[in-house]
Design goal:
Layout: E1 21-25, E2 31-34, H1 36-42, H2 46-49, H3 64-75, E3 80-87, E4 93-104, E5 110-118, H4 122-140, H5 145-163, H6 167-173
Antiparallel strand pairs: 1-2, 1-5, 3-4, 4-5
Helix pairs in contact: 3-5, 4-5
Bound molecules: flavin mononucleotide.
């Protein structure tokens, strides 16, 4: 299954305040487990999800700098909290507040990753949306993807430095993380 030709509709797909979207991956980020809520909101069957990269639910509005930050943290063995705008199989969007953690084997090596996602507070999203838009705009100013990512990541670092916060502090300070 591929999402290559899915066009965002601008319509939101709802999920409940008490629902948790869960997935587990291998070290490359390929999905090994997705719960029923993941599949329901992504509008996909379990069989279509397992073995796929998480980018099957990637929304084009998401700046790549945020995924770089996410991967840098978890590959270094740290947990990360992040706001992510995702896209369902029919092009609908859903914002999540994700907690992504590495799992370790008995030798202390990273054996995979785990993500729990809750519905974010609207007030937190209002703080996040203009920042993500600025990051995406910065990324798009460059024809070269690597240069675009570097510039967008620098803008993210500068924005956080200006606020005197880490991304994690910023996330938790943005009016409360989830409902
Ligand atoms: C445990 C875990 C959960 C992830 N969850 C999401 C997610 O919900 N949405 C998403 O777009 N990317 C998620 N990612 C990041 C993707 O692996 C990928 O970096 C991102 O979709 C950008 O894809 P691209 O580099 O192909 O554009 C997750 C990664 C891991 C390891």
């Amino acid at each position: 299954m591929t999402k290559r030709n899915i066009v965002p509709t601008g319509e939101e797909i709802a999920f409940g305040e008490h629902e948790i979207i869960v997935s587990k991956t291998d070290t490359k980020g390929r999905i090994l487990y997705a719960n029923d809520v993941f599949c329901k909101v992504a509008e996909m069957q379990t069989n279509d999800v397992i073995g796929q990269p998480h980018s099957i639910i990637r929304h084009p509005d998401m700046p790549r700098a945020v995924f770089k930050l996410l991967w840098d943290k978890i590959a270094a063995g740290e947990e990360v909290f992040a706001y992510v705008k995702n896209m369902s199989f029919t092009g609908k969007y859903y914002w999540v507040f994700a907690h992504v953690t590495p799992s370790f084997d008995h030798a202390g090596r990273i054996s995979g990753y785990h993500s729990n996602r809750r519905k974010p507070r609207p007030v937190a999203l209002e703080a996040i949306k203009p920042i993500y838009k600025a990051l995406l705009d910065e990324e798009k100013r460059y024809k070269n993807r690597t240069e675009g990512l570097e510039a967008s990541y620098k803008l993210l670092e500068d924005t956080l430095a200006h606020a005197g916060q880490t991304y994690s502090e910023f996330v938790w300070g943005a009016g409360g993380a989830h409902v």
